[in-house]
Every structure is written in structure tokens, then in C-alpha cells.
Write a structure and sequence with these properties.
The protein is α+β, with helices and mostly antiparallel strands. It has a domain at about 50-200: Sandwich (Jelly Rolls). Helices cover about 30% and strands about 40% of the residues. The strands form two sheets. A six-stranded antiparallel β-sheet has the order 1-4-5-12-7-10. The N and C termini lie far apart (about 80 Å).
Length: about 240
């Protein structure tokens, strides 16, 4: 039989349940935090897809850092002649073709295209857009739109730089290409979309109505305080 608790032993018996409760609570918080982290890692951003996957689920969205690509539409011979792989990198999307599918040989040309909406979710805007590609005896071009207006049309190794007062946070892109035809060695290995960014529009330095109202209220309050001080000094 254990002796009754006395003195320090009684104090320890009183403290330990509270300590255990805190430990249990701390463990629960840590477990909840870990579950949130695991859920976030399970929902990692999608950075690549294929035209075949988009044919099944056209709502696929790609995300890298502060940029997203949505409304992706594949057209032309990308379905019949190759399953184009779309990889979204920090610089922009890359279309990867298989040269043995879109490759050497004579006969009808192979044409296709990919369109999408690219947007910046942070506080920056697009600074420039460029188009590069790798292959032999092909054509490729890029059309850049904003709000339904055509901003620029680019060929391979061409770039457009927006003016300092142009702040586009989303752009509609239409890329198209043609391979083959009468050429015996026509190939297209990949197309690169290159986007650079710049700081977004600076906030206006003109004070808004709320700061002005605040200054007026402070001035009125100071007048009332001075009047009270003056009245109290007269009474004394």
C-alpha cells in the first residue's frame, strides 16, 4: 500500500495532471500542424500536362511560383500526330515534341497550335515576351493578346518589350507551328515561351479621403482639449 501524499509529493501530484494536459494539447497542435503541412504537400502545384490529358480534362491549370497557366487548348495535329508535352518552368511553358513523330519525310505538312491564359498572381507585371524553338525547316509564331486586343506577333527568336507605363498582369497567348511539307529533313523538337517580369504599378502618393478625414478629426480634438485646459486654468 502506497503512503498518502504529503508535502512535496502532494504538490507534485497536483502539478503533474496540468503538465500532462499541456503536453497533450501541445501534441495535438503539433499533429494538426503536421497534417496541414502534409495536406499542402499532397496538393502540390501541377507544373506539366499533355494535350491528351487536356482532351480529357480541359480545366487543368499549371502553376509555378507566382504565375499560372489556364484555359489551355490544343488544336490541329497535336492529337493525331503527337502527344505534345507541356512543361511549365520559371521562364514559361515549353512544348516538347517527339522528333520521330513530327519528323523527317516528304508529304503533307503537320500543323498545330496551343493557346492559353498566363497570369501573375503577385504584385508584378509582364515586362517582355519572347519565342524560341529547336528544329529544322519549320515555322512557328506567337500572338499576344490583352483584353481581346492584339499586342504583338512574334516569330522564332523574336521578343517584345512592353513600355514602362504598360502593366499587364495577364496575357492571352496563341502559339502555332507547321512542320513537314516538301522538306526531307523537317523536324521540331521544342518551343520555348519566355516571360520576364517587372514591378507592378506603384501606389499613388496622393492622400486619399480617409487620411484627410483623420487629420480633420485630430485637429478638432486638439481644439477641444485646448478649450478644456483653458477653462480649467480660469477656474483655478
Amino acid at each position: 500500500m502506497n503512503p498518502p501524499f504529503t508535502g512535496a509529493s502532494a504538490l507534485k501530484s497536483f502539478v503533474r495532471p496540468r503538465a500532462r494536459n499541456k503536453a497533450v494539447l501541445g501534441s495535438a497542435v503539433v499533429a494538426a500542424f503536421a497534417s496541414v503541412l502534409s495536406a499542402g504537400s499532397a496538393q502540390a502545384a501541377v507544373t506539366s500536362t499533355t494535350c491528351a490529358a487536356l482532351a480529357v480534362d480541359p480545366s487543368i491549370t499549371l502553376t509555378v511560383l507566382d504565375k499560372t497557366i489556364s484555359n489551355i487548348v490544343c488544336s490541329g495535329d497535336v492529337f493525331n500526330n503527337s502527344n505534345v508535352l507541356i512543361n511549365f518552368s520559371v521562364d514559361g511553358p515549353i512544348y516538347e515534341f517527339s522528333s520521330d513523330i513530327i519528323g523527317a519525310g516528304t508529304g503533307p505538312s503537320t500543323s498545330g497550335g496551343i493557346s492559353y491564359l498566363i497570369a501573375i498572381t503577385g504584385d508584378q507585371a509582364f515586362n517582355s515576351v519572347a519565342l524560341t524553338a529547336a528544329g529544322l525547316d519549320y515555322t512557328a509564331s506567337k500572338e499576344i493578346y490583352s483584353g481581346g486586343s492584339l499586342l504583338a506577333t512574334l516569330g522564332v527568336a523574336e521578343e517584345t518589350i512592353f513600355d514602362a507605363d504598360e502593366f499587364y498582369t495577364s496575357l492571352n497567348i496563341v502559339d502555332s507551328w507547321t512542320v513537314g511539307g516538301d522538306s526531307q529533313f523537317s523536324t521540331l523538337e521544342d518551343i520555348n515561351n519566355l516571360f520576364t517580369q517587372k514591378p507592378g504599378r506603384a501606389p499613388s502618393e496622393v492622400p486619399g479621403p480617409l487620411p484627410l478625414l483623420g487629420a480633420g478629426a485630430a485637429f478638432g480634438l486638439s481644439r477641444k482639449m485646448r478649450a478644456r485646459i483653458k477653462a480649467s486654468s480660469v477656474k483655478l
